[in-house]
Specification:
The protein is an all-alpha fold and about 220 residues long. The chain has 10 helices and 2 strands.
Length: about 220
């Protein structure tokens, strides 16, 4: 079994992402949340609210405190070690590739969903006006990376509070998200964006391994 010791230091990229998410969450409480979401949340392509920067900006907005807390807790828990291992530049690139990749998958799924809805219907317009927010896609990419780098590290789950090896945690979590996405359960959650974050993270890690095997083997 591989030994693993979590890092206690707070590296700069993780620290600044935490701060940025916290500041924007406070801004949504103090200012007009609807206006902020209209500008920076991720709307489907074709929506009158879609802006070119939203595949990046949506990662820094959250729907509520619990949404923010669990994403930032996962970033703090896994991101510290990954940034120290990857280096800050690679970690920052990885984080944004996963987050933007998740947005791309979400947009593709939105086009598929919209294809089955009449364009003049109320449901069609409601879909176009429904935004996606949160760092979950990027965070799922971090979970994937942690599971690949430390497959035998033990993770203590919160619900239920049982230990699980990282590799099985990632596999089970990915399958659960795929199940919910395919069945349409918990449809208020962007399950395919979560899977998309893991997929793009896997692609980037495999590319890095191909380019620089000595760093990751």
């Amino acid at each position: 079994m591989t030994s693993y010791a979590p890092q206690s230091a707070m590296p700069p990229v993780v620290k600044n992402i935490l701060l940025a998410n916290g500041v924007l969450f406070v801004a949504t409480l103090l200012l007009d949340k609807a206006d902020i979401f209209e500008l920076f949340a991720l709307f489907p392509v074709g929506s009158p609210f879609f802006k070119i920067w939203q595949p990046v900006s949506y990662m820094f907005l959250h729907g509520g405190f619990s949404h923010l807390f669990f994403n930032m807790f996962a970033l703090w828990m896994f991101g510290r070690d990954l940034e120290l291992e990857m280096g800050s530049k690679r970690f920052l690139l990885y984080y944004f590739v996963c987050g933007v990749g998740a947005a791309i998958i979400q947009q593709l799924m939105a086009r598929i969903d919209l294809a089955g809805i009449p364009e003049q219907s109320i449901a069609y317009m409601q879909y176009l006006c429904t935004p996606t927010v949160g760092a979950s896609g990027a965070v799922f990419g971090l979970l994937l990376a942690f599971g690949m780098f430390h497959p035998n590290a033990t993770i203590m789950l919160l619900f239920p509070p049982i230990p699980m090896k990282a590799k099985w945690f990632v596999i089970v979590y990915g399958l659960v998200e795929l199940f919910f996405g395919m069945t349409g359960r918990m449809d208020s959650v962007a399950h395919f964006a979560h899977i998309g974050g893991m997929f793009w993270g896997w692609l980037l890690i495999m590319w890095w391994r191909y380019r620089d095997r000595r760093r990751y083997y």
